[in-house]
Amino acid sequence: MFVVTSFSVVHLTGDLRSGPMFGHVNAARSSQERLPIFDTHVHYKEPAWEVYPPDSIIALLKKTGVVKALVSSTPDEGTRMLYKEDPERIIPFLRPYHDDINSSNWYSKERVFPYILERLEMPIYKGVGEFHIHNPFDADSPIIKKTVRLAVERDLFIHVHSDHRAVETILSYEPDVKILWAHAGMSDPPEVVARMFDRHKNLWVDISIREYEIAPNGILSPEWETLFLEYTDRITIGSDTWVNSQWDNYEAIIEFDRNWLAQLPDEVAKQIAFENAKRLFDR
To answer: Model's pTM, two decimal places?
Structure first.
């Protein structure tokens, strides 16, 4: 079995459900086998539309026990197609990327903000993002400031792909904004995430793309386990279907997450898998 992440193919030896490596979690797995999942990092981008029509995406989510999915897309029409297919399951976020607006230039294009305002006229969105801040010094650019302030005014979340420095900058000028921090900072270690949680009460993370770091060889890392046990109500599950290969391997990604969740106490696993995100986004 293997899991495709944004950067690499992670090979897992043996069956995740058996073998000496996982013997100590088999009992826990029996209660977690179909633990419902709220996937808080889904994209339905244009290259996926023909390969995976909307009805097939919904069928895949149902098959894998993903009962809710937070979706943003490039362009936004992808999110609206999935929402139309299953409005109970899909939680829309508005991504600012469209036409020639992308992750590297969105915060410098004046026409981005009118686009955001126009799309938000359809009152289905729970947040803005996922958007990227590649350089933390751009976090206080005028477009980002206006977007963050709009989110506060309208009680929306922002879904931010950045390191902790950009998040700190945003919270320095808008301390009340609610942030879902993508990939738990992507490369920031658990101790940095913990420090951010201590400093900011309205910060949560998804752990997409960090599965192998969280559970190398399928065994939950002690450092990540400590984070999960101490900040149980701040963590959510995510898959990040940013390319079609992530959809190709979606079942394996969710199964891998269920495996390490099964190594946590049941109540902790339930909160991370579903309850935290439901409380935050399914309002």
So the answer is: 0.89
